[in-house]
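In this section we walk through a basic example: taking a raw amino acid sequence and producing a predicted 3D structure, encoded as discrete structure tokens. The instruction is simple. Fold the sequence below.
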Amino acid sequence: MKYTLDTIPVLDAYKTGCECPLCSLRIHSEDQYVDSMLGSAYMEPDCRVKTNEVGFCVRHFQLMYDRRNRLGLALMTHTHMQEVVASLEKILGGAPARGGLLASLRGGKEPDGPAPKIRARIAGCVICDQLSASLRRYAYTIAQLYFANAEFRAMLEQSKGFCLPHLALVLEMAEETLHAKQAEEFRKVVAGLELANLRRIEDELEGFTLKFDYRNADKPWGNSRDAVERSINKLMGACVGEEAQMPPHND
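The resulting token sequence is shown next.
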């Protein structure tokens, strides 16, 4: 098998035995992008042009704030703020939207009003865009490797499937990039794997709830002790518990 920059992380993620390899890849990539943004990247002209224009979402501002490089964050935020102020001067200083109070009383909409423009102005995130592109490449790699490498095929078939958002992504990439016959075969394999693991977690979650009945106090927990966290992560993508934790930092 030809190893690429995307192949090796995918294989490493599958070796961990986690509930969703793409969640593992997302967290690792997110950590790298946050570090890169606060490293040399924020001094590169191309990066600054993009961060000035697009900015960051709440989560990635929080993650960068929690790292040590406050100067880098301040420099990026300052020039981004300048762009936002220039935009808001145009948005808030423009002519009033047509219709005004009378249109609103009649149920009319004001598509040219400032509110949707303000929301659009703060809707972007450079790191989210990077993550989206990376995860699409990883999902593509998973679909391609399944038919290109027998070792990976066995790894996927013995895995725990995907969280639901990444299940949709990997099936979408398979449909877009594989021949129709391969895409259908891949879909059937992944569907069977996913449903079996969803039932497994459902049973483990029920086992967790039954432990709170005094009659089951002496029964072993089995795999149910962290079933709540794993159930949420399976439904929504890694967002709670140990699976969702970023790598440790000395910041």
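Looking at the output, two observations stand out. The first helix runs from residue 7 to 15. The chain has a mean pLDDT of 91. In the next section we compare this with other chains.
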